[in-house]
Amino acid sequence: MGEYARYLKSAVDVAREAGELLKRHFGEPGEVFFKGEVDLVTRSDKASQDLIYGRLSELYPDHDFLGEEGLKELSGSDFRWVFDPLDGTTNFAHRLPVFSISLGLEHRRRLVCGVVFNPMSGELFTAERGAGAFLNDRRIAVSTIDDLNKSLLATGFPYDIRKTKTNITNHNRFLVRAQAVRRCGSAALDLCFVACGRFDGFWEEKLNPWDTAAGAIIVEEAGGRVTDFDENPVDIYHPEVVASNGLVHRAMLEVLRLES
After folding, report:
1. DSSP code string of the chain
2. What is the mean pLDDT of residues 114-142?
3. Are 55 and 36 in contact (CB under 8 A)?
4. Helices and strands in the chain, H and E counts
């Protein structure tokens, strides 16, 4: 048990409770609203956020909170919870059971624990700084693939892709340099799948802090590497991320740095 074990336990308990809420509402009619042309929000996004914030703020009233659905309570506390109450809203809205609750905790701007829970599969990914990463209480590790050509990668696309075409060029470049590229629709789960060796690498642009806060520390504690496209250390407030098993990281960065 490490220094942050009690916070991790709280996050696990809250993620499980929010997961039960999402399962109850999965597939219900009248759930979906549009924030933009293709950007969705559901009643369950907001209900899950209210539940998570309510539980954690009661336990830790002196902590700060940053959540996807407009939650921003930043008083300058040493501790900040950064979370997505439903990562993979489009999947959820279309009754595709690939979505998650993602909870990360920072201490003095350093990620110290993370929890990602897919309530439909029952897979719970956890990590505490210096204590390793786990899937349903079993320690996990990144893959040992060291050749980009043999790597299975994952990515995602921003909601403004129709206007900006963001990531299409990089996606096409990786299609012909990796074994294959997948798009699951939940950045938090993509990162966890890197952590447990299902994917060898993941990259994405225009991400928000709540997309990567939990997954980034889970990858690192599983022995992987997380940076931006310029190989700077992970910063969840920077909108681009590359995560990998470490062995194909430089090769991925080389592709991302190619001239358009």
Report:
1. --TTHHHHHHHHHHHHHHHHHHHHHTT-TT-EEESSSS-EEEHHHHHHHHHHHHHHHHH-TTSEEEETTTEEE-S--SEEEEEEEEE-HHHHHTT-S--EEEEEEEETTEEEEEEEEETTTTEEEEEETTTEEEETTEE--------GGG-EEEE---TTHHHH-TTHHHHHHHHTTSSEEE--S-HHHHHHHHHTTS-SEEEESS--HHHHHHHHHHHHHTT-EEE-TT-PBP-TTSS-EEEE-SSSHHHHHHHHTS--
2. 98
3. no
4. 8, 15
DSSP three-state, residue 205? coil
pLDDT tier for residue 6 given thresholds of 50, 70 and 90: very high
pLDDT score at 35: 54
Q: Are strands 71-73 and 79-87 parallel, antiparallel or unpaired?
A: unpaired
Helix H or strand E encompassing 175: helix 168-175
Domains and CATH numbers, the chain: 5-139 (3.30.540.10), 148-256 (3.40.190.80)
